[in-house]
Specification:
8 strands, about 15% strand, alpha/beta, 7-stranded mixed sheet, homohexamer, about 240 residues
């Protein structure tokens, strides 16, 4: 089988990295193409430290800073990143924006899509991103979206971690753990690029340890760091996918 | 009691027929008025064969073709059909469109409303249609929508089949089966009018047999073809509605 | 169609009457056979007034009193009643008891079964009754329960009201209302026989009014008294069962 | 601790009063500030009597009347009220409106937020209000909504009663009862100001009795009138909050 | 990795074959050990044809016949089978029986466990089997069940198809499809051994086609026959398990 | 109000301490009576280290050891503890045992009951304990359980943490956090008494930090250690219970 192409749709500029940076780095190491689409720069919601340091700055300046950070982080991971600049808090997705996203999907033709878990009342943009990705995938799968362009059937879709630390409140229920022990260092380096959110490394290391603890408990072996996901589309294959023990 | 009036709200041009064509034909035979409203022509999502045959066609031409097909199918069933031409994939319902639909409901004054099941991630337009019909019914039931026009209280609402074959994925849970054995032939004739979707007859015959098998299993008799629905509004009556055995 | 036979399985001695007495009386008026099975006398849980009046009484004496009351109530309604005497609070259903109940079902051959809603943490016996009725119906539907006795396929099953006034806490969700205005007086007379529970008439009149209010609101007409039920098995028929407006 | 500030977001002009008027009056008596925001005047959906009396009136005239009523009711309760005039049935919330509401939240800085339960198919505006309040709270909690303005973290949020009498249909599940016996008279006086909805006093007295009955049943004491709520955000404290018995 | 050992726990004599016979045969072909445990012979519930042909037979004679059939079917599949003879309809699992099952698990040490979906009101024994397998796995994972015997941590657990044709009623939601096209012929031969249930081949061929249709629809390729499962324990691995396209 | 009495029902010997030890110590400090009932000694499931050290020991000897540990831990917390010795893995609750527990409840007359969350497939005894406590509370609330003994109405019930680290898998959703920073040291000392489970201190410190992090995030202040609970019975009071900020 050809190496899979991965599309990661991130509501804000840093979500792709904090939730799935370790997994992205693993696929990149395998030689896969990973394309990230950030719907917004997270200029309002994700930039606490930036605003603390620059209380008189502007939204536009914040966007410039966030873009710089996200580009650097993606580069560390070895992934490409595009920005939609749709404005966050609240992220509003119109029909035109859904269509744009659907056309991007038809262009990228991903085998795997990663995006947010759909329920996240603490950070509603995340849930909006999730449902709009499903909607865009649905649109990308039909023949008349772009007559003459081949429709792209639904790939394997996985949802990543909702707003930490409120994962139980958000009813996030993991059924797939990826062991990221070997790429955790790369992920940390990528996270360090988000200077507007200096706490990311600590928080998400704690979460990666927590998920590693859970994953290791299921398989009775030591897993230092893991990322947790919820599979959305069914698995179809010749045999059951068995956990590595 | 007077013969009930039935309103069927269909997200795309063919949904009404594939999901409830047999039931529609039965009510028409009883002398009931059946009014169909198609929110879109399904020009993008439902016209796979059309686009395969006419790769250089336009959306407008596809709409013309779809309208012709849907009109022919409605005629076979004996129902009227109106088209909103709202564009599909994605179907976007604005406040104005909801109000238009609510006013149509106040005009038609249906005793029964049929529409899509609300959860259909494979075809998100279906879920949008479902929730917008509930919303329009809510608006149609209030006195100030059109001052001077009598509000129309919520009728008996039933949801029809979600995207086949993924009915379990869509969590569609039938609680009402209508035996369509006697009108299955008419339904097939109506389905044959959708030349842009030549597979409809085969797929929905299979599903009608499947639903018939289930319905027959519950009642311990042979039911060759059935359509399955989920009741939404409560039943109110003098006695329990009992299955026919 | 022949007149339907109704089986009502009541966890305690009075449940059948307080939750479905009005409906029972209606079916009896139509000439139907209604058979009640009370799994316990409710001697511990349902006899507050009895114990207040007879603090030094015994469980056996309480059972005698409860049986007298339930017999009188059933007679008022025009239904037959049998008692299993399984002891309440906690009601424990063994394999033998499930089999006994299944054999009774094969003997009665009901077209309609009424029993408790399955979730009732305030009165757990109710939930036990509900799940055990489903289990006994499952057993009664198989050929080898009593070789030589015809199995009885699942009839139309409806759950009645859970512990009042905590119906929302118990997640009871009505989808079927029966208008009992014409038999409310008979129901009240039957309830008056339960002298160990003198508050029944007041509570359940209030609830019948509440349910009537809801039922009337759905159908835009005045329904003075109603009983609310949740349908369990699907409806199968030639047309939709429509609310009476 | 300083006295808490309460924000009540009401979909229509009278919702705040019918669902939480007794609770509002209690907090006002304690010296708390209670600020109400009515997203619409309920000119279409809530003004049945007005339209019956003034069949030839206009939407604008209805709004004037509704505003007068709501102002009078708020004054009786001792609360302030602002109106957004967003039009009801259907209430449509754009990104701009969400941002406005979020800015109001940052300005008011509430310790408690009361709004609608999120599921209310009979009156969809209610559910829209609920989800939009959560979204606005999410936006109000981020640093970049209004650079230079302190973000407001999520307060304690409670949902009030959905459309009566269909609370079970709407899956409203109360976990918090407030005893309003002492302010029921004030609430009734406030409700009497809504002359376009003369039935409010009777309906909501019945519901306050019903909720009082439930609350009293849980605590084994007489509670004449209560209002029921569903807590949304978790409780955090030094000990468990214990019911008053 | 060593070849996985598979344990299949079947409520009745034929369940293992009708729901997972194709998958079993595939694992056997790969050289895996597959051990089946049948809790009962299904002598009451699964032997309709037997009782029709032998109306005067006994439960014991039915068991003998069923055992013969199940042994023959297991042999065709290439799997071992043991019988607990616990009596069906109703299947009652005591503490002793749970412990016995847990000890068998510690003995077999499976990497994969297949058993029933947990919700199956039409055939309650199935749900009992499901929950009791989870309970036995929990017991088998602790050190003191059999001091001196190594506990067996939870393996990868998958639930197979609930009672057909009522899979939507039973809320069975597949997330894992196994393509059994290459072993469908073996499965059919195995099913033919159950002469007490001559309809199995037809019903389960239809279901395997239905599941194949769904699986093929997800992966856009032709899958003639498939079996559907619901994963229970999370997947833990180095990468996502991707569908075969 | 008199100081509340707390009853903690623990499936195994150490559950009360690991999940609610900090909260227990706080109530004890306030002068409250805290009574623990341990249904089993956890001799099979909770004693991994004991069995590793004493591979040739017996169940009886393990029980003696576990009892010693639990007594010492309860003493550190300042609580009383009783043991039912019902045997764990699997814990089987008969009607007699439920009645015994109900009689103990009528004797203790708790204002607060703490027990397990109801869903815990990794450790099914926990869920059994939870449901049986609800059942015993239901039995304890009726007049005829022990004629002459005053029934005890349902107190405020809270569920504590399910099997860590699988709290999301177990769908445990916290709505009440108790800050245990001031008693964490006592809890640790108590946990140290469970020498058969030497890992408890580390695991539950990590969890108390995690819950503290969540609780602090909701209230925007530093909470070093917390325990998380799910309220079961509704809160009834004069005002809303507000989080301490």
């Amino acid at each position: 089988m050809a190496k899979p192409t991965i599309l990661v749709v991130s509501g804000h500029a840093a979500d792709f990295c904090s939730r799935s940076g370790g997994t992205i780095a693993k696929y990149v190491r395998e030689g896969c193409r990973v394309q990230i689409i950030a719907l917004t720069f997270g200029e309002r919601g994700e930039s606490a430290y930036y605003w603390a340091q620059n209380p008189n700055s502007t939204i536009e300046a914040a966007k410039v800073q966030r873009k710089k950070e996200a580009l650097a982080a993606a580069e560390v991971l070895g992934a490409e990143i595009d920005f939609c600049d749709y404005d966050d808090h609240p992220l509003i997705m119109t029909g035109e924006r859904i269509t744009e996203l659907a056309m991007r999907i038809q262009d990228i033709r991903p085998d795997i899509v990663l995006t947010h878990w759909h329920h996240d009342p603490v950070n509603v943009d995340h849930g909006v991103t999730s449902s709009v990705v499903i909607r865009a995938l649905s649109c990308a799968s039909v023949p008349g979206l772009q007559p003459g362009v081949k429709p792209h059937p639904l790939p394997d879709v996985f949802f990543f971690e909702s707003s930490v630390p409120h994962t139980e409140f958000n009813e996030f229920r993991i059924d797939t753990y990826v062991d990221i022990t070997e790429t955790q260092a790369i992920k940390l380096e990528a996270l360090s690029k988000f200077t507007s959110q200096p706490f990311l490394a600590e928080w998400y290391t704690k979460y990666a340890e927590h998920r590693g603890h859970q994953a290791g408990n299921w398989t009775q072996r030591t897993i230092k760091y893991a990322e947790g996901f919820k599979r959305y589309t069914p698995y179809v294959g010749s045999f059951f996918p068995l956990s590595e023990r």
